[in-house]
Amino acid sequence: MGWSYHNPVRVEFAVGAFARVAAAIAGRPWALVTYPMDLFRELGARLGRDAGPPVATIDDVAANPDFADLGAACRRFGAARPAAGVIVALGGGSVIDAAKVVAASGGDFDRVRAHLLDGAALDERRILPVLAVPTTAGTGSEVTSWATVWDTAGGRKHSLAHPRLYPEAAIVDPALTLAAPRGLTLATGLDALSHALESLWNRNANPVSAELAVAAAREVLAVLPRLLQRPDDIALRTRQAQAALFAGLAFSNTKTALAHNISYDITLARGTPHGIACSFCLPQVMRWAIGGDAACDARLAAIFGADLAAGADRLDAFLRDLGVATDPAAHGLDAAAWSRLIAKASAGERGRNFIGRHDLAAD
User: Fold this and answer.
1) Cβ within 8 Å of residue 94, ≥6 positions away
2) How much is the average pLDDT of 241-265?
3) pTM
């Protein structure tokens, strides 16, 4: 059977790689998209000294970029003079996703809204390059061509996707993750694990994505518990950052699968952090995946050992040991609601990527 793998993002990975961002801007007028916190103001000021001041700064990005907030951000970007030639996304997945929306907007969020709601074509000539500088280790948005956009008022999650939204470069400096608190380190670490596993039990898996996913999953399982105990350990931060990058490179080609489709309603309804919402059900989804595809089973065995049922139990224990409840009831879902959510998620775009059974509501 034939396969293909494609990812055009140039990756620079090193402790201290933040110093290379100015060279990547390469003299172009640039805009900064980041968080409204002192750490990010300091990093932005440092970058401004090296690259010259940005022509626009959008520094009020909140978690889970939402329709309600993105309009103002795009307008501020569009009003910049001179116009930006490149966008620097400095932050976690929410910042990188917001930067992609801004990059696609041409200064007018209504263009993106029309694309997401009505399928109106994006003007690819207006899509600006993005330099992604992640400050967390998990989302993988620095190497994908899509952005998650939330419409909380409408009760929907959207995916903005276009080949030109692959960042021009991902500049990954593990030292930037040292400031991440425990909860954020946990949630983003589990997001990386979810990306790795979801790209394995996936109809779009290929040998390259699978090798990256196996390496990523094994590393997160080994590193994350230790990192949560020793958050200042730069060696562990570096290993986790590389694992998250590998997971991003894996699912950049496969997209995600059932666990992510399950997560969307939980995040919308309860505000549960994405990494928790998409990871608590991984053991159950793994049980459903076992036997669905021999190649997937072999790759899961490379992570969990030959007894995959026992491996799913160990994954369950791994999550619970980290403080993540794996019982749907702990996430506000009784048996009937869980069954309905599984049926809905199985029919969703990401759910249809899953290689396991789709009659899950009967379980």
Assistant:
1) 61, 62, 63, 64, 65
2) 97
3) 0.96
CA 38 to chain centre: 24
Structure tokens belonging to residue 361: 């509501």
C-alpha to C-alpha distance for 134 and 128, rounded to whole angstroms: 18
Mean pLDDT across the chain = 96
**Other Cβ atoms within 10 Å of 72 Cβ, number:** 12
Q: Give SS3 for 192.
A: helix
pLDDT in tens, 285-344: 999 999 999 999 999 999 999 999 999 999 999 999 999 999 999 999 999 999 999 999
Pairing state between β 146-151 and 156-161: antiparallel
Distance CA 308, CA 290 (A): 7
CA distance 348 to 353: 9
Q: If we measure between CA atoms, which residue out of 117, 114, 207 comes closest to residue 154?
A: 117
Beta strands in the chain (DSSP E): 10-13, 30-33, 56-58, 86-91, 130-134, 146-151, 156-161, 169-172
Residues 101-138: tens digit of each pLDDT: 999 999 999 999 999 999 999 999 999 999 999 999 99
Q: Six-digit token pair at 223?
A: 């590193």
| Parallel, antiparallel or unpaired: strands 130-134 and 146-151 | unpaired
Instruction: Name the residue type at position 356.
Output: G
Residues in the chain: 363
* Domains present along the chain, CATH in parentheses: 10-175 (3.40.50.1970), 181-362 (1.20.1090.10)
Cβ pair 35, 59 in contact under 8 A: yes
127, 108 Cβ separation under 8 angstroms: no
What pLDDT, on a 0 to 100 scale, did the predictor assign at position 360?
A: 46
Pairing of strands 130-134, 86-91: parallel
Contact 292, 201 (CB under 8 A): yes
Q: Is 46 within 8 Å of 58 (Cβ atoms)? A: no
Mean pLDDT, residues 65-87: 95
